[in-house]
């Protein structure tokens, strides 16, 4: 036996997974890889639902006794809508 091997403790190197330090199973919550896209999709769907429930989704229902004024933020143009029905617009560029 060479002289260097006399000072090596028995059981060295430690078996994989039992090394001191590093992240072990107690290191915190790590979501499974397939769960991350699901979380992102749920947040996105929740945001879209909130936008439409709050009335800022870009859809206006004009009844027979109403008119709508559609204001374009970019050009400042105002369009009067007298036709009853549903009007769809871009909420970040227009306001009804």
Keywords:
single chain, alpha+beta, 3-stranded antiparallel β-sheet, two-stranded antiparallel ribbon, 1 helix, rod-shaped
Average pLDDT number: 79
- Shape descriptor: rod-shaped
Q: Separation of termini?
A: 88 Å
Order of helices and strands: HEEEEE
Helix content percent band: 10-25%
Number of strands: 5
The Cα radius of gyration reads: 32 Å
Q: Biggest sheet: strands side by side, in what order? A: 3-2-5
β content, as a range? 15-25%
Spans of 5+ residues with little confidence (pLDDT < 50)?
Answer: none
Report the total helices.
1
Question: Major sheet, described briefly?
Answer: 3 strands, antiparallel
Strand-pairing-aware structural class: alpha+beta
Walk me through what this model shows.
The protein has 96 residues and is of the alpha+beta class. The chain has a domain at 57-96. The protein has one helix and five strands. The chain has one helix at 35-53, and strands at residues 59-62, 68-72, 78-81, 85-88, 94-95. A three-stranded antiparallel beta sheet has the order 3-2-5, with no helix packed on it. The protein has a two-stranded antiparallel sheet with strand order 1-4. The longest helix is centred in the middle third of the chain and has 19 residues, at 35-53.
């Amino acid at each position: 036996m060479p002289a260097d091997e006399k000072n090596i403790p028995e059981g060295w190197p430690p078996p994989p997974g039992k090394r001191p330090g590093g992240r072990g199973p107690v290191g915190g919550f790590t979501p499974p890889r397939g769960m991350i896209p699901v979380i992102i999709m749920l947040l996105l769907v929740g945001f879209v639902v909130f936008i439409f429930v709050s009335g800022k989704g870009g859809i206006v229902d004009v009844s027979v006794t109403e008119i709508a004024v559609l204001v374009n933020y970019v050009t400042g143009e105002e369009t009067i809508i007298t036709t009853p029905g549903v009007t769809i617009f871009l909420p970040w560029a227009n306001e009804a």
